[in-house]
Amino acid sequence: MNTSEIDQGDASKKGYGVAIDVGTSSIWSRLVDLGGAGVLDTLVIPNPQQRHGADIASRLGLADGDSSARAELHAEVIGAIDDSISRLCANAGIGPGEISEVAAVGNSAMYAFMLDADPGPLCGTPYNLKGAADFQGPAASLGLNLPAANLFIPRPIFGFVGADALADIVLVGMTESGETELIVDVGTNCEMALGNREKILVASSPAGPAYEDTHMSFGLSATEGAIYKAELRHGGFEYSVVGDGEPRGICGSGLIDIIAGMRRNGWVDESGRLLREGPVVVAGGEEAITVSQHDIRSFQLVKASVHAAISVLRMKLGSEDLGRMLITGTFGSYINLDNARLLKMFPDLPNDRIEVVADAACQGAVLMLGGDGRGALEEIRGRIRHVALPLNKKFQDEFIRLMAI
User: Fold this and answer.
1) Is 349 exposed, middle or buried, given 0-12, 13-18 or 19+ CB atoms closer than 10 A?
2) pTM above 0.85?
3) Number of structural domains in the chain
4) What residues make up the domain containing 98?
């Protein structure tokens, strides 16, 4: 698995490119000198669509059958992409007219919103955008302020497994690997890919909302004010906050640390039952930040769903051997692997066989800039098989088994 930073350009090419990963919560962008200097700058901003709901389902439900809402969601994501590119250009001292290539990946819902396509098929079985195709055309045709840029938006793989997962697969070179590798892209929707040069299996499972939004008492994405690291010592929590200011809530990595600390100290049993009078105060103040029994149960449901999905993919692949694992997504940026292992979030691998990369999909999108980088995508897609989970009996059995912490 090779996920080192992209830092080499192609001297035969000229101009600049921008690679973008449009996530449900965050939008990552990378400015690339196509001719020699490689990646020049990286930017991450919140997805402005969050005001309509932190999870994908809320936005899809809003847009389904409502043309004005759909147009608004499209305008918001295009505006955010435009703003990101403008800021990258300003920081680099170049003009938007010097951008010649843009590659934008995202989950299936973000694909629909970027292209202002009908999201209705994602609102009911089989949850798949029928007829979805790669978009290749002038960036200006979608309203981007890029007069000379070609825009490439690859279609989703299947269902809720989007082109962001395809970018992850491209980045790690899974189709060339002799050992079985696992990618877990933990966002609001968790996408997984397991495989090697022989076969690749993919699946998706809801994840982020139960970690970081209103499903949690004090849930917060990994933004300023979020407790992202915590340790239970001498009966209280010591914690670190994004931005080093006053805490406003708890993001996913912080929640893992807090529950793991309570588990080690006997405050929570294996079933997830809180053994102290709750809710447990993590940070005091005018409004104490707490973790409740409901928060612990929400965490269990999500981590069991994600790990059960991985278990089913391993069964389907027919091998328990696992060489390496990549954890990506904003959620994974601060994750403590020892605490995640204690809570049985992922397969049990030693830390030296796990890599954590915040923006793997954006890095993979860098490799899709220009026709040469896109040439192998169809061959890669041909090796991928989607695994549907909701009605899978093994998934249900594994889900129940993996509820324990």
Assistant:
1) middle
2) yes
3) 2
4) 16-167
